[in-house]
Design brief:
Layout lengths: L5 H16 L5 H14 L6 H20 L3 H38 L17 H17 L8 H9 L1 H4 L7 H8 L7 H33 L7 H32 L17 H4 L5 H12 L9 H19 L3 H23 L7 H24 L3 H20 L4 H6 L2 H26 L4 H6 L3 H18 L13
Length: 485
Amino acid sequence: MLFNSFGYVVFLACVCGLYALVPVRARWLLLLGASYYFYMSWRVEYVVLILGSTIIDYVAARRIAANPGLGERRAMLALSIVANLGLLFSFKYYGFFSSQANELLRWASVPHELPSLAVLLPVGISFYTFQSMSYTIDVYRGVREPERHFGRFALYVSFFPQLVAGPIERSTSLLPQLGRLGSIRWENIAPGLQMVLWGFFKKLVIADNLAPTVERVYSNPEAFTGIEQLAATYAFAFQIYFDFSAYSDIAVGTARLFGVELRRNFRLPYAAKSIPEFWHRWHISLSTWFRDYLFVPLGGSRGSSFQWSRNIIAVFVLSGLWHGANWTFVLWGAVHALCYLAARLKESWLPVSESISWLRSTGGRVFTFHIVVLAWVFFRAETVGDAWIILKGVGSVLATVTTDIAAVPALVGSGFALWTSVAFATGWVAVPVAELVEYRLTKKPLFTVLRELPAMVRWGWYYAVTVGTVLMGNFRGPEFIYFQF
């Protein structure tokens, strides 16, 4: 069941109606049933996986809290980690690693092949295994007490607004809210529906109208010129942002209807002035998960510069692999790791005086934006070979413009100017202005500011976004990009 479908609108309306009717003590049960129904609408039998992960982590956490012995606690923690990562490996990574191993065996002339495993990737498995596993780790660390109510814990793992593509919630934030579910109130309905409406607009009007251009070029890059490849790469940069942030907006808005606050997953990422800042603004729930549950246990920033660099590279490469079983994602993570390290080294070696900080800020936005855009090539390309074809095409365009000013009119006539205009307007004008309003002037989220505007302005905005979605939305567009992860 896709968020951007009529079926989801009907489903959400029914759940909200029943939620208002059932007794308070039964609301967790209603949401749990709705969450499992939502998940089973994709593939019924895969509900066994999420239920198995839930049971293992529930039992492991209870045993950890009940046993003071270090050996028993470590054994239960290992059970949780192995079970969750084992599920993830079996369904998401086994095919990739077995194919790579078989190629290596053939190269070594070894007459043996690993068996293949033809299974469909369960939707949302990368998200709910990480969320469930983090709960067990928190109990082991003593950050929280184990949840004794199994049904409430099952709802924490499967809560349908953020089940499929996050944000990845922490038990310390989400579980207490699920334990005090209240009534549906107007102060929750209004901002919740605003977020849902804005998410629909971003997905249907922006992301899904960019998708055909991106798909056409990236599915067969050899058939297109460097200009077209560059245009498609710019288009994908905005497609993935508006697509993924749209899902997060709809998830946050849906949860808000039930009085549940989910964490913010994006904070104007294309306004970042460096790669480290970008990762404080992009997919925040995942980046902080890797920080707290991988980077810190590896040693974090402690130790030598070599150890810190090693930890950074490990985190980014594994986070790239988390997105998909393909070398393209590994390279995407590696590119960000190297850029992250370079940015940190530059900060320590090249201090900039306050008198030219504005120049550093503007130049940092432009440079960071383009590093991110070029890295997206590895993320979107179907193979490493396709990625190199596109990068070579983009490089040829940039080299031509740099060496031959006469080539500029040809670029403008090709339609390239359209995408560069979008990049400048959205990446370097609209986003910084939004940041200025949101974080410098009002100190409030934009939706909070919107609710404080006069009713005529506020409802005019609702009307414009709704009509724009209906008239310009691509209602036959692809599913959300992060559903495949």
